[in-house]
Amino acid sequence: MQTIYTPCRYDFVGSFLRPAKLKEARQLFKQGKLSQEELDAVTDEAVRDVVAKQKAAGFHVISDGEFRRAYWHLDFMWGFEGVAHKAGGGVQFNGEVAELDETWLVGKIKAKAHPFVGYFRFLKQFEDEQTVAKYTIPAPAQMYQQFIIPQNIETTRKVYGTDEELIADIAAAYREVIGQFYAAGCRNLQFDDCTWGAVVGDAAKQRYEALGLDFEVVKGKLLTVNNLALEGKPADMVINSHICRGNYHSTYFTSGAYDPVADYVFAQEHVDALYLEYDDERSGGFEPLAKVSRDKKVVLGLITTKTPQLEDKEAVIARIHEAAKYVPLERLYLSPQCGFASCEIGNKLTEEEQWAKLALVKEIAEQVWGH
């Protein structure tokens, strides 16, 4: 069977709204009223259903909707040695606090048999001649960022005296887990990365400078940890990156154009494609796309997952052609700007509205690039 590589001309980021039955089961599990086996059975059923719906919608990539995790990023970090977590944390988004588990270091970061690889194996069984499974994990830079935030830096420094030591261990652990995914048959992996989205805009620069950190040095470290993790990647494995500014319950974390990070992530990060958030004015213009290295593809996230209103088709098509002034049309692809449920709370739209958004993505892509 010929391997399909992402991005597909019409694509999506990865997460889907959790069905009510799954949300209820996860709540009962937290309350001790449901066993792990019972929760797994409900989750397996929900994954089978969402995969069937992706295929019915005509997409060539399938995801498990991130149904087995509470958070798009933290659950993955918990799968390494040296990482602890507990309930009770939170991050301020635009008008709302995102409830996130506190996650910190208690020892050196080391890879072990990662549970997400088992989750991928379950998904892979649904591949066919028309579809390929991709799996989404947080970028190495996201893990690095998690352990140097102000509330974690003191505990991190008890384990790692320098950022360079921390970066080296994160990259090594990621390389090992990437190898585990490859051995399980994964040929399409996606890094989800809010770190670049967090260093755009004047507010971000002020935030880092207030911590006594050189803004350009910060960006250099984000690039370094991502590229170190990609060293030795199998030639027949695609690893793409989704750049985000935060997506929690239809709110966002930061605003700002890509200009301050284009020389780093667009020009120098060694991923195969970039899934870019371009659904509103917070993302700025397409001019920074001129910095994208010629070996990369660009997936334009022009359809928002934050609101149920369908975009005007002709306006989206016009924006695709505007972007094509900077990246040739044959290297451009289309998707929503982010997932529909980066955390299990999900965004503020219905499952029906979610599938209508994806139908629009497919319809526009076929009109622009042909079937």
Strand numbers in spatial order across the main sheet: 5-6-7-8-9-10
What name does the CATH topology carry? TIM Barrel
Query: β content, as a range?
Result: 15-25%
CATH first level: Alpha Beta
Overall structural class, as computed from helix and strand content, comes to: alpha/beta
What CATH architecture would you give?
Answer: Alpha-Beta Barrel
Query: How many strands?
Result: 10
Spans where pLDDT lies below 50 across 5 or more residues: none
**Residue-averaged pLDDT:** 91
What proportion of the residues is helical, as a percent range?
40-55%
Helix-strand pattern: HHEHEEHEEHHHEHHHEHEEHEH
Shape: globular
In angstroms, what separates the terminal alpha carbons?
21 Å
Quaternary structure: single chain
**How many helix segments?**
13
Q: Let me know the largest β-sheet.
A: 6 strands, parallel
Radius of gyration (CA) equals 19 Å
In total, the number of domains comes to 1
Kindly describe this structure:
With 371 residues, the chain is α/β, with parallel strands linked by helices. It has one domain: TIM Barrel (Alpha-Beta Barrel). It is built from 13 helices and ten strands. The strands form three sheets. A six-stranded parallel β-sheet has the order 5-6-7-8-9-10. Strand 7 (238-243), helix 11 (259-268) and strand 8 form a beta-alpha-beta unit. It is globular and about 55 Å long.
Short characterization:
This protein has one domain: TIM Barrel (Alpha-Beta Barrel), CATH 3.20.20.210. The protein has helices at residues 20-30, 36-56, 74-77, 115-124, 140-148, 153-159, 163-183, 195-198, 202-210, 215-230, 259-268, 313-323, 351-369; strands spanning 61-62, 81-93, 96-110, 132-133, 135-138, 188-193, 238-243, 273-277, 297-303, 332-336.
